[in-house]
């Protein structure tokens, strides 16, 4: 089963990946965020793509999610681990922690969010009751437990439009809706992966307390510092997970 990792904020390169080639993929939906990197990690072939581009220049609402997922499928990927920075809403979701969300609420708008458009296909309604692949989540959760990473094995990811961060009132609404985490890229990525038949799971990395929680505002300095720590945990996690998939 070919494995790929999509990295987000704080993960534009995959440390330890012995790169074998970079592949530019043309898709019917336009350009992916960059060339797909092929390499070997822990003795396994892995592909890597930086969601915001390798120089982190593409904001969340302008990512070509369809091209990224189509490219993965085209290259034979069957399992896709998404790494995503998030704000922590509920008290378990402390900065620098990892979490493996099990649900999503989509607050985004105006994004090209499906492969099944009238002019291309018949009307298709995918089942999305459980938006993440449970078998892939199980592997991530087990590896994080073994490595004693203190990760949270659940959570509802609220996907907001960005690129601005949320207001305090928006975060209160997200909390009332049942969101534990907030990020800007979880949708439509997860739904497109399901439409493409990929097993997809997210490793969320808490970058900050969400806006207004505990009366706080959000600074880029804290986000960067927490992501340095959190991405260290992601590397530990991937080193255990990759050989098992
Ligand atoms: C202030 S950082 C916000 C930025 O980080 C997250 O990106 P990703 O999910 O790709 O790691 C979030 O969704 C925003 O795009
Ligand atoms: O607080 C946040 N909100 C949305 N996206 C994010 N990505 C990191 N932190 C945040």
Automatic annotation (TrEMBL):
Binding site for phosphate: 9, 51-52, 185
Regions crossing the membrane: none
Annotated substrate binding sites: 184, 208-210
Taxonomy, superkingdom: Bacteria
GO MF, one example: S-methyl-5-thioadenosine phosphorylase activity
SUPFAM superfamilies linked: Purine and uridine phosphorylases (SSF53167)
InterPro entries with a match to the protein in the record: MTAP, Nucleoside_phosphorylase_d, Nucleoside_phosphorylase_sf
Catalysed reactions, semicolon-separated: S-methyl-5'-thioinosine + phosphate = 5-(methylsulfanyl)-alpha-D-ribose 1-phosphate + hypoxanthine
Top EC class, one word: transferase
Pathway: Purine metabolism; purine nucleoside salvage
Protein's UniProt keywords contain Transmembrane helix: no
Gene3D superfamilies: Nucleoside phosphorylase domain (3.40.50.1580)
Keyword Cell wall biogenesis/degradation applies: no
EC number: 2.4.2.44
GO cellular component, one term: cytosol
Keywords: Glycosyltransferase, Purine salvage, Transferase
Function: Catalyzes the reversible phosphorylation of S-methyl-5'-thioinosine (MTI) to hypoxanthine and 5-methylthioribose-1-phosphate. Involved in the breakdown of S-methyl-5'-thioadenosine (MTA), a major by-product of polyamine biosynthesis. Catabolism of (MTA) occurs via deamination to MTI and phosphorolysis to hypoxanthine.
Family classification: Belongs to the PNP/MTAP phosphorylase family. MTAP subfamily.
Family matches, as PANTHER family: S-METHYL-5'-THIOADENOSINE PHOSPHORYLASE
NCBIfam families in the cross-refs: MTAP (TIGR01694), PRK09136.1 (NF006599)
Protein name: Probable S-methyl-5'-thioinosine phosphorylase
